[in-house]
Amino acid sequence: MEHGLEPKERLEHNRTAMKSVFGTVSESDQEKGLPMPQPFKVCGGKRVALTREFTNVIRKNDYLSLLRDRVSRRAYKDAPLSLPELAFLLWSAQGVKSVRSGLTFRVVPSGGARHPFELYLAVKNVTGLEKGVYHYLAGTHELELLRPVEDVEKQVVSVLNNQSFTSAAAVTLFFSAVPYRPEWRYVEAAGKLVPIDAGHAMQNLYLSAEAAGLGMCAIAAYNQSVADAFLGLDGTEEFTVYAATIGAL
Length: 249
Ligand SMILES: Cc1cc2nc3c(=O)[nH]c(=O)nc-3n(C[C@H](O)[C@H](O)[C@H](O)COP(=O)(O)O)c2cc1C
Description:
By secondary structure, the chain is of the alpha+beta class. The chain has helices at 7-18, 63-69, 83-94, 152-159, 180-186, 190-211, 224-231, and strands at 46-49, 96-100, 103-106, 117-123, 132-137, 142-148, 171-177, 214-219, 239-248.
C-alpha cells in the first residue's frame, strides 16, 4: 500500500481531485493577508543568456499544418540543438511577457495567473552548453547551471522509468510544481489547477517543437523520488510533475 491509502481509496481520492471544489475551500492565506509567494525561483548557478529573437528558428509557421502535423516523436538524430532553438522552446513553455502587481503574465495561461511551474533541463547536446542539469530563469529569460553531469543521458533514462528512447534526447525538460503559489489563493482547489496548467504549457511546447522542425514527446511516466533527487527538489514544497524529451529530426 502506497501513500497510506488502499487502492480503492486512492482511486476515489484521484477522482475527487479531478472535480471542482471552488466555493467550498478553506480561508486562504491571501484572505488572511499573508504575502504572495514569489513567482520565480533563483538557484544561484552560473548564468547563460538566451535570445528572444526567434525568427531564424521557425521553419514552419502555417498554423493549420502545425496542428495537423504535431505528433509525439521518440526517435531523434544524434545532432545538437542550437541555443536559440532551446531558448525558443523554453520561452514557449513558460516565457514571461509582463509583470503587473507582482503577477506574471506568460506565453501560457494559468489559473489566477499563479504560474506554479519551474523548468529544469537535462542537457546532453546543445551547442555552447556543457552537459548537465540547468534551471530556466523565466523572469530574466536565462539559464543557470545547477551541476555538470557527464553521463546525463544515462541518468535521464533511469529518471524516466527506463524508457530507453529517452537517452537519444538532446534535452529533457522537467516541469516542477511549487504548489504553494496556487494554494496561497485557491487552497484545496489548487490541486485541480496544477495539472491543467501543465497541459497548456506542454501543448505550446509540442506546437513550438513542430514549428522549429524538432521532435518531442511528453512524459508523465517518470520515477517521482528519483526525478526529485535528480533535480534537487524536496518533494513537498516543490516536486516534478511532467517531462518532455526533445531532439533533432
Ligand atoms: C499526459 C501525457 C503523458 C505522456 N507520457 C508519456 C510517456 O511517459 N512516455 C511516452 O512515450 N509517451 C508519453 N506521452 C505521449 C502519448 O503517448 C501520446 O501523446 C499519445 O500516444 C498520442 O500520440 P500523439 O501525441 O502522437 O498524438 C504522454 C502524453 C501525455 C499527454
